[in-house]
Specification:
Blueprint lengths: L6 H16 L5 H16 L2 E2 L27 E3 L7 E8 L11 H12 L8 E8 L2 H10 L6 E3 L4 H8 L5 E4 L6 E7 L7 E2 L2 E2 L1 H9 L5 E4 L5 H14 L10 H12 L3 E3 L2 H11 L4 E5 H6 L6 E9 L4 E3 L5 H16 L1 H4 L20 H13 L6 E8 L7 H13 L8 E7 L3 E9 L2 H12 L9 H18 L4 E8 L13 H7 L3 E6 L4 H7 L6 E4 L4 H12 L1
Parallel strand pairs: 1-17, 3-4, 3-5, 10-11, 10-12, 15-16, 15-18, 18-19, 19-20
Antiparallel strand pairs: 2-4, 5-14, 6-14, 7-12, 7-13, 8-9, 16-17
Length: 555
C-alpha cells in the first residue's frame, strides 16, 4: 500500500525546514551543528575519490615572479609622448594619486605641466603619474621588470630597502607631502596603550600579547604603514639596538605578540571596513592623512608612531640627466604649493619626530621574511580553496585561475594544511584538508589541472562545505587556524540564500578571504566581512599576484 501525503504537508515541512535554517545562531557549537546539518541535508556535496597526482616543481616561487601586468596600473596623468617634451614618470603611492582628497600629486602634476617650464635642452618639462602602492612599486623596481624615472613611496623605508639591494636611488626631495603613521584606538581603550598621551609601545605589546587588546595592522610587504609598524615592534623588542632586531629572542617575542593579533589586512581600507563592520578591533594602523579624511569613526583617536610618512621623491637609475632636471623642477614646484597640501589632509603633526632610525636597510627585507615566518604566532593554518567552476569561467578565465592557483601554491609553507572545493550547480570536495607536503601538493596541482566548467553559481553552498571540512579538521587539529580562500567570477544564482547561512558562518569565526575575479561583488565582500576576511578584486592578468600576495600574508 502506498501512503499518499497531501502537497500541503510537503509545503508545511518545507516551511518548517526553512524556519529552522533561518533561526538565529548564538554560539560556536550551534554554528558548527547548523553548518553540518545544511551540508548533509541540503547541499549534499560530491566527493572526488579518484585523485590524480601531477608533476610539481620543487623550485621556490616568490612574489617578484608573480607581479601583475603593468597595464593594470596605467598612467593616470600625462603620458610618455616625448615630442618636444621631457617626461619624467613617477610611481606615486595611493594616498597621493587617487580620487578626491587622495589626489594631491595629480593636481600638482597637472598644474606643473601647464606651467610649461623650459629645460636646458629646449624641451618642455612634464610629469607623468602612475598610481602604485608603495610595496608594489618597490617590488616592480626590485624585479627590474619595469623601473620608472622616479619613486615617491609613503615613507623612506622602501628607499632604504631598494638601496640595500644595490639599486642607487638619488634624493630629489626628502619631503613632498608631510604625514605621519599612527594607531587609531577606541577612546575607551586609549589608556591601555598610552602614557601621558603618547604611545607606550611596551604597554601596547603587553596588552596585545596577553589578549586583552585587539590590534590590527596591514601587510608589511604591501603597506607602508604595516611595514613601519612591524619595524617599530621589532625595534621595541630589541630596545632600540638595531643589531638585535632580528635576533632569536626578538623573533620569539614577536611570535608571542603576533599570537595576540587577530587580523592583518592587505590594505588600510580593507581593515577599516572590517573593523567598522565587526567592532572586534580596539585599534588599527592608519596614516594621518587618511584619518583626517575618514568619516564614521568618532569613537577613535589617532596616536602617531614610528618613522614619518613624508612622501620622499627619489630618482631611479632609469632617469637621465634631463629627466632629473624635470624632477628637480617638480620638487621645487611642490615646495611652493605646500599651503595647498592642507586641502588634502597633509601637513599636520609637523612636530612629530622619527621614533627610530635604521643604518642598515637590509634589515627591512629580513624583517619582512621574519614576519612571514612568525605571523601566525606559531599556529599552523588549515585552509580550503573554494573555486568557482561555473559556466562563466569557461575559456581564459579558468585557465588563468588554474595557473594562478598552481603558481601561488608554492608560497604555502609545508607546515600548513590545504583542501580544495569546487562548485557550479553542485559542490564537490576535490581534495580533503591534509598537511601540504609534497604528496598533497601533487594532488592539489592534479586536481586544479583537471578543473572543468559548466552550470550556475552556488557560492553559499560551497562556502558551507568548505567550512564544514575545516570544522571537522579543526576538531582533530585544534592548534590550526582555519581559513577559507574563495575565488569567484559571478554572483550567487543557485542554492541556499545568504540569509540562511550568514549567522552560522559568522559565528564559526572562519575568515573568508574572497577574490572577486573580474567583477565587483557586494556578496563576496559581505562574505569576507563576516569574520575579518579580505575582499580583493582581481583581473585575470593579476590573479597569480593577488592570490600569491594573500597566501604570502596568510600562510
Amino acid at each position: 500500500m502506498t501512503l499518499k501525503i497531501p502537497h500541503v504537508v510537503f509545503a508545511l515541512v518545507s516551511v518548517l525546514m526553512l524556519a529552522a535554517c533561518d533561526r538565529t545562531v548564538d554560539s560556536l557549537e550551534e554554528a558548527n551543528t547548523r553548518i553540518q546539518t545544511l551540508v548533509d541535508e541540503q547541499v549534499k556535496p560530491g566527493y572526488v575519490e579518484n585523485q590524480y597526482r601531477a608533476n610539481i616543481q620543487l623550485t621556490k616561487t616568490n612574489l617578484l615572479s608573480l607581479l601583475p601586468d603593468l597595464e593594470e596600473y596605467p598612467i593616470t596623468l600625462g603620458d610618455r609622448d616625448t615630442n618636444n617634451r621631457e617626461v619624467a614618470e613617477i610611481f606615486t603611492s595611493s594616498e597621493k594619486a587617487g580620487n578626491g582628497r587622495d589626489g594631491f600629486y595629480l593636481e600638482l602634476a597637472d598644474a606643473f605641466n601647464q606651467q610649461g617650464f623650459k629645460l636646458g635642452n629646449g624641451k618642455t618639462a612634464s610629469i607623468a603619474i602612475r598610481k602604485m602602492a608603495s610595496g608594489l612599486g618597490a617590488q616592480f623596481i626590485l624585479s627590474g621588470r619595469y623601473v620608472p624615472d622616479a619613486f615617491s613611496p609613503s615613507n623612506e623605508l622602501w628607499i632604504q630597502m631598494l638601496s640595500s639591494n644595490g639599486i642607487p636611488m638619488t634624493p630629489i626631495a626628502e619631503v613632498t607631502a608631510p604625514n605621519t603613521a599612527g594607531i587609531i584606538v577606541k577612546k575607551s581603550k586609549i589608556d591601555e596603550i598610552t602614557t601621558d598621551g603618547k604611545l607606550d609601545i611596551a604597554r601596547l605589546l603587553t596588552n596585545v600579547s596577553n589578549g586583552s587588546f585587539a590590534m590590527g595592522y596591514t601587510n608589511p610587504y604591501q603597506s607602508s604603514t604595516g611595514l613601519n609598524f612591524l619595524l617599530t615592534i621589532l625595534n621595541s623588542f630589541a630596545e632600540g639596538d638595531e643589531a638585535e632586531m632580528l635576533s632569536p629572542d626578538v623573533a620569539s617575542a614577536f611570535e608571542a605578540f603576533q599570537a595576540g593579533v587577530p587580523f592583518v589586512a592587505q590594505t588600510t581600507l580593507q581593515m577599516r571596513d572590517a573593523a567598522q563592520g565587526s567592532g572586534v578591533l580596539d585599534a588599527m594602523v592608519m596614516e594621518h592623512q587618511s584619518w583626517v579624511n575618514v568619516t564614521g569613526m568618532n569613537d577613535y583617536e589617532f596616536i602617531p608612531f614610528g618613522v614619518r610618512h613624508d612622501s620622499p621623491l627619489y630618482a631611479t637609475p632609469e632617469a637621465n640627466e634631463a629627466e632629473r632636471e624635470v624632477l628637480g623642477l617638480f620638487a621645487e614646484f611642490i615646495k611652493s604649493q605646500q599651503a595647498a597640501s592642507a586641502n588634502f589632509g597633509f601637513g599636520r603633526n609637523l612636530d612629530y619626530q622619527n621614533a627610530y632610525s635604521l643604518d642598515d636597510g637590509s634589515i627591512i627585507g629580513q624583517a619582512q621574511k621574519l614576519w612571514k615566518l612568525k605571523k601566525t604566532g606559531g599556529r599552523p593554518v588549515a585552509a580550503v580553496f573554494v573555486a568557482d567552476v561555473s559556466g562563466s569561467m569557461e575559456g581564459p578565465r579558468i585557465r588563468n585561475l588554474q595557473k594562478a592557483l598552481i603558481e601561488s601554491a608554492d608560497l604555502i609553507n609545508a607546515t600548513n594544511a590545504i583542501g580544495l572545493v569546487t562548485y557550479s550547480d553542485r559542490v564537490n570536495v576535490d581534495l580533503y584538508v591534509r598537511p601540504f607536503n609534497v604528496q598533497q601538493k601533487a594532488l592539489f596541482t592534479g586536481a586544479v589541472e583537471r578543473l572543468t566548467t559548466g552550470g550556475k553559481t552556488a557560492t553559499n553552498d560551497a562556502v558551507l562545505v568548505a567550512a564544514n571540512q575545516l570544522v571537522e579538521f579543526g576538531q582533530q587539529n585544534p592548534d590550526h587556524k582555519l581559513v577559507i580562500f574563495l575565488l569567484s567570477d559571478g554572483e550567487t544564482n543557485k542554492g541556499i540564500e545568504f540569509s540562511g547561512v550568514r549567522d552560522a558562518l559568522e559565528w564559526s569565526g572562519i575568515p573568508i578571504h574572497s577574490i572577486a575575479y573580474e567583477l565587483s561583488s557586494p556578496h563576496l565582500k559581505e562574505l569576507a566581512g563576516l569574520a575579518e576576511g579580505a575582499y580583493i578584486e582581481s583581473s585575470a592578468g593579476s590573479a597569480s599576484y593577488r592570490i600569491g600576495n594573500l597566501l604570502n600574508s596568510e600562510m
